[in-house]
Amino acid sequence: MTDFIPAAKPLIGDDERAAVDRVLLSGMVAQGPEVAAFEREFSAHFVENSPTVAVNSGTSGLHLGLLASGIGPGDEVIVPSFTFAATANAVALTGATPVFADIEPETFSLDPVAVDAAVTERTRGILPVHLYGHPARMRELGEIASKYGLALYEDAAQAHGAALDGRPVGTFGAMAMFSLYPTKNMTSGEGGMVITPDEVTARRVRLLRNQGMERQYENELIGFNARMTDIHAAIGRVQLTKVDAWTVSRRANAAFLDENLRGVTVPPVADGARHVYHQYTIRVADDRDGFVRALKEEYAIGSGVYYPIPNHRLPSLEKYAPGVELPETERAASEAVSLPVHPSLSDADLERIVTAVNALAGAGS
User: Fold this and answer.
1) What is residue 2's predicted lDDT score, i.e. its pLDDT?
2) Which of 216, 223, 256, 355 could serve as a FRET partner for 65 with CA atoms 20 to 30 Å apart?
3) Considering the entire predicted model, what is its pTM?
């Protein structure tokens, strides 16, 4: 029987288990020294030592980061619709309005022209997503933010180690978030990191994650329980020592697919961009869903369809987008499919993926 190739595969080994055991034996499992060490190490590794705050999920990171940045009722933040709902959810949870703008076909991220057209007198910020591990058009979006006096934020949930013109993602905006969910390029089991160059904003995130207090029972503002545990931080610290090698593997796997796939649109990489391939996303113009079924049923290859229903058409978010038309978003939602690119793939796995995709593309699935 042919072994199934999964679309994603979290890598958790003996080192991570030993780190968890160390924390459990210490008796200190809530937020403590492991979290503080993880924050320092993550900051040094990915974002040039910018202030970094660990929280219990990527969604919490976006939510608290926006609140700490002053986003709230009456404000608008421009976001993509072609992404996971957490991006727009985080805006809505502050009481602000997510405004959906279309994407460009190359990066699957916000189209600067569409963003410029979406700016109103209520717009306070722009929140692009570095989707699939490719940096968004931060040069152009930064110019728009400067033009209108807006804040630029970053959803870097999928982009650990990505860069543009040698500058790491997470360092372009007033606030950024990285996710540490199990399927991301590295994980802490669950969690997120909030990045900001502003110590005042960073302190507000720390307050918000801990019931609004820095010292016990001295609550300064109304906050949440969004703390990361030392158990999760210990896992994340180990993963930090491995993620660079995994990124090398992801990029090498992507290069092999780029060179050998036929009949589908492979993911382009913009000039100056460093893609870290959280996902390797191709376009299948004809019968994408049939293509996905055939990959699984005929070749035992998993894949991912992210995101088949754009955010602006979700029952939870459509009220923010009456009459909105986003043609590139709709096209991506009907064509995009992500192939396995994770570090666990063998040479034989990669050959099988190429054989399957080329056969199906040639046959029109």
Assistant:
1) 81
2) 216
3) 0.96
